[in-house]
Write a structure and sequence with these properties.
This protein has 2 helices and 28 strands. It is mainly beta and 372 residues long. The protein has a domain of 121 residues: Methylamine Dehydrogenase, Chain H (7 Propeller), CATH 2.130.10.10. The strands form 7 sheets. A 4-stranded antiparallel β-sheet has the order 1-28-27-26. Strands 2-3-4-5 form a 4-stranded antiparallel β-sheet. β24 and β25 form a beta hairpin. It is globular, with a radius of gyration of 19 Å. The chain starts with 5 loop residues before the first helix and ends with a strand.
Length: 372
């Protein structure tokens, strides 16, 4: 799944500007629009689904159905909201109300329909909340209070990997958590040192981490199922002055796909593939300063989808051929500028949902965009 929720911080910062200016999991193959490419099928206001004035924290793919959004208010409540397609456009249906979650909250939907929320609470520290389909809930406290966290779920749903950035002088730590037993089974330091911006499970076990190194580089590092480093770290943008990591995922054949902002103003981005410890494909992305650069991969690992947005550029969902680096399609999400966050597949092959907010006269709203 989706990886650290950089999105929450990006959305919060840019939506504040918008209000003032007023101005890993596989994805599907979107259905062709009138020009042979995918098309925007509609939008839905996520705020309205929970009574308004809510903040979008995460969007998670559901292996058995439609993606689920995690929202919270400014106080004690949070909600899970299902986003689905329909004849009249997308719908947003509240599924469950949760107690307060932290700003770093990440959501996973397990294969059995359970919801797993990882977050840092003001008094509880870092913990996992699991809610089963029958409504039974379990809390697993991990005994840490990180400044930042990233998670990835193993393919068999048995292990949650977490990367915790701890307060100085503590080093960043990788954890493996047995979800059935509710215990940490392994720990290891993040190597090389730095803050993990995103995690993704490897098909042969272990994880890939996208690390923000102290010298301002974005590094891909692989770990085996014992959390030992595999190979050497790979700089995703060695020729750029800045490497601010965004997202990472892994195809079924082990190809790593990573995104990063590569300019001081965040306007420039880059998507790369890493094969056998080296960058194989590199795609430049212009006008992405207001995108979290979340990436979703097709089941065959041939295609990636990335949201592209900046206050001076159109807001689009871009389709990229990973072998050639060619942009094969773009879908306009807003008439003007926007801030864009997460992307997740809808069902088995029914399109994609992107999240964000158009910058218009109605003010910032947490919006889901259905593309198919």
């Amino acid at each position: 799944m989706p990886r650290v929720r950089r999105t929450a911080a990006v959305l919060a910062a840019v939506l504040a500007v918008a209000a003032c200016t007023d101005g890993g999991n596989g994805g599907p193959s979107p259905r062709p629009g009138g020009d042979g490419g995918p098309a925007l099928l509609g939008t839905v206001d996520l705020d309205a689904a929970v009574g308004g004035d809510a903040r979008l924290l995460d969007l998670a793919a559901d292996p058995g159905g439609d993606p689920v959004a995690l929202l919270r208010d400014g106080g004690t409540r949070a909600w899970l909201v299902e986003v689905a397609g329909g004849e009249d456009g997308p719908t947003a249906t509240p599924l469950l109300e949760l107690p307060a979650v932290g700003d770093d909250a990440e959501l996973s939907v397990l294969a059995d329909g359970s919801f797993l929320v990882a977050s840092t609470g003001p008094t509880s520290g870092y913990q996992l909340l699991t809610v089963r389909p029958d409504g039974q809930a379990k809390v697993t406290a991990l005994g840490q209070r990180p400044d930042r966290a990233a998670t990835a779920l193993s393919a068999d749903d048995r292990t949650l990997y977490a990367a915790l950035a701890l307060a100085a002088p503590g080093p960043a730590q990788l954890l493996a958590v047995d979800l059935a037993a509710g215990v940490v089974t392994m720990t290891a330091p993040v190597v090389p040192g730095g803050t993990v911006a995103a995690l993704a499970a490897r098909p042969d076990g272990g994880v890939v981490a996208l690390v923000e190194a102290a010298e301002g580089r974005a590094l891909v590092t692989a770990y085996d199922d014992d959390l030992r480093p595999v190979g050497e770290p790979v700089d995703v943008a060695p020729d750029a002055s800045v490497g601010a990591p965004a997202d990472v995922d892994v195809t079924a054949d082990g190809t790593v796909v990573a995104t990063a902002h590569v300019s001081d103003g965040r306007r420039l981005g880059r998507l790369v593939t890493v094969v056998d410890g080296a960058v194989a494909t590199s795609v430049e992305l212009d006008g992405v300063g207001d995108s979290a650069l979340d990436v979703v991969l097709s089941p065959d690992g041939a295609t990636a989808w990335v949201p592209q947005a900046d206050l001076s550029y159109p807001a689009e969902l871009v389709t990229i051929d990973l072998a050639s680096g060619e942009r094969t399609a773009t879908v306009a999400l807003c008439a003007g500028a926007a801030v864009l966050g997460d992307v997740a597949p809808v069902g088995a092959d029914a399109g994609l949902v992107a999240t964000g907010s158009c910058v218009d006269g109605d003010g910032p709203q947490a919006t889901a965009f259905l593309v198919g």
